[in-house]
Amino acid sequence: MSALTGIDFTFDTPIDTSAALRKMQNDGISFIREGRVSSLFDENGMFDWKDVSASNLPAIIAEMGEVRWAHATVGISLLLRDSQRGGDLLFHPGRSAVSFMATINRKPLSDSSRFCDVGWYLDNLVPILEGFGLREVEVRDSV
C-alpha cells in the first residue's frame, strides 16, 4: 500500500485556471518533467492523463482556462521550486476547489519513515494561491 498525501484548497470565488498556472510559473513552479508535460482534461470521468512535448505547455495552460472546461476537472503535474518533488494539481468543476496530491518524489517528514512533510508543500503552494481568494486548506496524509 502506498502513502497518500493530499491538500484541498477552497476559494471564495471561482479562480481563473490559466492565471493561477501562470502565477505558479512566475513563482518558480515547473510543469515540465523530463521534457514532457502531463495534463488532464477529464471529459468522461476516466482521468486519462496525457504526456506531451514541453513545447505544448503554453497551449495547455491557455486551454485549461477556456470556458468549455469550466464544468470538468482539469489537471497538470508540477515540480515545486528548485526541487524534483511535486505532484498532480487538479482544478475541480466550478473552479472554487483545487486539489494537490504529492505524487512525485514525495518529501518525507524529518525522522519519519511513513509521513509526508506537508508543511513543505504548504510553504510552496499557499503563498501563490492566497492571492486568488484562498479561504480554506485541508490536508490529508495517510499510510
Order of strands, widest sheet: 3-2-4-5-6-1-7
What percent of residues adopt helix (DSSP H or I)? 10-25%
Compressed to H and E, one letter per element, the order equals EHEEHEEEHE
**Arithmetic mean pLDDT:** 95
Q: Can you walk through the features of this model?
A:
By secondary structure, the protein is α+β, with helices and mostly antiparallel strands. 22% of the residues lie in helices and 34% in strands. It contains 3 helices and 7 strands. The chain has a 7-stranded antiparallel sheet with strand order 3-2-4-5-6-1-7, covered by helices on one side. Helix 1 packs across helix 2. The N and C termini lie close together (7 Å).
Distinctive features:
143 residues; alpha+beta; 3 helices; 22% helix
